[in-house]
Amino acid sequence: MALTVAVTGGIGAGKSTVSRMLAELGATVVDSDRLARDVVAPGTPGLAEIVRTFGPGVVGADGALDRAALAAVVFADPEARRRLEAITHPRVRAAFDAVVREAGREAVVVNDIPLLRDVAAAAAFHLVIGVHAPDEVRVRRLVGRGLAESDARARLAAQIDDRARARLCDLWWSNDGSPEALRPLVADTWRGRILPFRDAVLAGDPAQRGGPVLVPADPGWPEAAARLAARVSRATGGGRVDHIGSTAVPGMPAKDVVDLQLAVDDLAQADQWSDALRDAGFPRVPGRWRDTPHPPADEPALWDKRLHANADPGRTVNLHVRVRDSPGWRWALLFPAWLRADPEAAAEYLAVKRWAAVDHAADRTAAGYAEAKEPWMAEAYRRGLAWARRTGWHPAG
């Protein structure tokens, strides 16, 4: 499938400006508002369902949807708005998917979409770009387009705020200046991230990554993990995905790598999902993968897994695919829970990580870094299990 990018932002923020620039660079751009009009045009099943739901008063004398009349019904009624969205959103998504299929695998298809409201909606795209600007700048732009100031402010107030929107976005661009100020950023992202992302998905290759470098804890890691986990879950029809590893421990310096774990019934299911994960941007890493068994007496095969990684060069991800309730699956969930609950254990682990990162700073991969931590991890496994027994911890969900 084509690489899909959502460009979102509040009214007057400049998302359409970004979309136009991406079109100039070669993207196929779809106007979500246009699709929303098309799916409720006269004679469509969408319009018929709206009339059944809200009554004939929302249709004008010409047989077309009377948008002002419909807005009067749904604007101040959240439940009515949800009923409307249940009619229109699936149809708009189906129309967009049709464009993606027709565009071909080598295309980049951009959806200019103002109403990206939740993580589940964002998960339908490989990448989400958010565009924002201060409210006063946005109001000034809207007034310049002929809108009354009071109407402009009302429209801003009716949309989700930028903090909620930012959580849905992989890239968050400020656009408080002239349109031309955005052009270098758009071009650099196209050449340095979007096209390499597309090429890696087509080839089924993970993005390149370097050796172990610890960075200060990033408060944005959990939100990034939530976005990525939603994409993995969507690709697998609702599979369970958890944020694991050091970036799941608040305040802990770590490699800038989001570790996720996908639960499967067995490794045959993992293999069945491999193509879907690749198409979603998480190609399989070749080779046989097995976590270090703890304790050594355990059956080694119980620690087998599949490993996928990101194709997006702008965000490093390890996706560990493990059998549900296997010892490796349980330990991956238990370990960060224990560290979150035991600051002394977390401090010990950080010291080990720092030593291993320095000792393997020249490595081109993180393999040596991971191996250097194993002696401490062997003892940590015993201590972690003891903590779980003492506290009654068990994997939630």
Automatic annotation (TrEMBL):
Gene Ontology BP annotations: coenzyme A biosynthetic process
Gene Ontology molecular function terms on file: ATP binding; dephospho-CoA kinase activity
Pathway: Cofactor biosynthesis; coenzyme A biosynthesis; CoA from (R)-pantothenate: step 5/5
Alphabetical UniProt keywords: ATP-binding, Coenzyme A biosynthesis, Cytoplasm, Kinase, Nucleotide-binding, Transferase
Domain of life where this protein originates: Bacteria
Main location per the UniProt record: cytoplasm
GO cellular component: cytoplasm
Protein EC: 2.7.1.24
CDD domains xref list: DPCK
Keyword RNA-binding attributed: no
Pfam assignment, any one: CoaE
Subcellular location: Cytoplasm
Catalytic activity as recorded in UniProt: 3'-dephospho-CoA + ATP = ADP + CoA + H(+)
Residues that bind ATP: 12-17
InterPro entries reported for this sequence: Depp_CoAkinase, GrpB/CoaE, NT_sf, P-loop_NTPase
Function statement: Catalyzes the phosphorylation of the 3'-hydroxyl group of dephosphocoenzyme A to form coenzyme A.
Protein family per UniProt: Belongs to the CoaE family.
Protein name: Dephospho-CoA kinase
Taxonomic source organism: Nakamurella endophytica
